[in-house]
Amino acid sequence: MQKSVYNYYTASQRRGQPEMRARSLLFTVYGDSIRPHGGEIGMRSLIRLMAPLELSPRAVRAAVSRIARQGWLRTRRVGRRAFYSLTPQGAWRVEQGVRRVYQVDPAPWDGRWRLLTYAIPEGRRRARDRLRRELTWLGLGPLSRSTWVTPHNLTDLLSEIAGAHGLDGNIAIFEAAHLGPGQDRALVERCWDLEAIGAQYRAFTAATGRRAAALQRRLRTRAISD
Questions:
Q1: CB neighbours (10 Å) of residue 207?
Q2: Do residues 87 and 29 both lie within one domain?
Q3: How many domains does the chain have?
Q4: Which of 34, 139, 162, 217 could staple 167 via S-S, CB 3.0–4.6 A?
Q5: What CATH number has the domain bearing residue 118?
C-alpha cells in the first residue's frame, strides 16, 4: 500500500485516540446495554456505567456533548437533570455497528468496489478529519488522501455520515469494477496495511484472552468461597 497515506491516517488516529475511544465505547454501551432497556439514560447513571471502562466523568460528558452536537443523541431535560437517547440517525449508526461486529456469515462479494471521494476545504479541517475517522471505523481504505474504497455496499450509511457532518455537498460516491493493473488483491494490499491489521487482531485476541482467563479465575475463586 502507499505507506505515506497509511502512516498519515494511522498517525491521525493515534492523535485522536482518546476522543475516538470514548465515542466508540459510548456507541457500544448504547447498543449493548441502554437501547435494549428503554434506550434512555441520565448523565449520572451513564458516568457510573462507563466508569469500569476507565472513562472519567469529564471524558464521558465531553463525548456525550460532542455526539449530541453531531446529531447522534438527543437530550430530554427534567428539571436540572438531562437524559440522553439515540436519534434515529444514532440508532441507524448503532445498528450498522452491531451488524458489522456480530455478522457471522457476510454476504458474498459482488465483485464491485464502492468509492467515496471528497473535496473539503482546509477551513473545514475538523469536519474532514472526523469524516476520515468515520471511514476508517467503517473499514474503508484510502486509495489516496481524498478517495476511499470498500468492497461493501455502504452507500446509504456513507451518505448518512456525510450528512451528519454537513458534508453532503463535498462528497461523491461511485460504484466501479477494478480493471487493473493487477488483480483485486493488489488493490487490497495498496489500500490496507494487512500486516498491521493482522498484528492488531493478534493483539486484540491476546488481550481479550488474558481478560477472559482472569475472569474465569475470579469466578472459580468466588464459587469456591461461596
A1: 10
A2: yes
A3: 2
A4: 162
A5: 3.30.70.240
Which CATH number covers residue 82?
1.10.10.10
Strand 73-78: give its sheet, edge to edge.
40-42, 81-86, 73-78
pLDDT band at residue 3 using 50, 70 and 90 as cut-offs: very low
Lowest mean pLDDT, pick from 15-24, 30-39, 83-92: 15-24
How far is Cα 127 from Cα 188, in angstroms, rounded to an integer?
27
Domain span including residue 177: 111-194
Partner residues linked to 149 by β-bridges: 115, 141
Residue 221, pLDDT above cutoff 70:
yes
Query: What would the grid cell of residue 47 be?
Result: 458516568
Tell me: pLDDT of 101 over 70.
Answer: no
Q: Of the residues 25, 57, 91, which one is the last residue of a structural domain?
A: 91
CA distances from 133 to 13, 24, 141, 171, 212 (A): 7, 11, 11, 15, 29
Q: How far is CA 99 from the centre of its chain?
A: 12
What's residue 13's pLDDT?
Answer: 41
Q: Retrieve residue 57's grid coordinates.
A: 466523568
Sign of CA dihedral 116, 71, 47, 95: negative
Report the distance separating Cα 41 and Cα 76, nearest Å. Answer: 10
CA proximity to 73, closest of 27, 28, 37, 32? 27
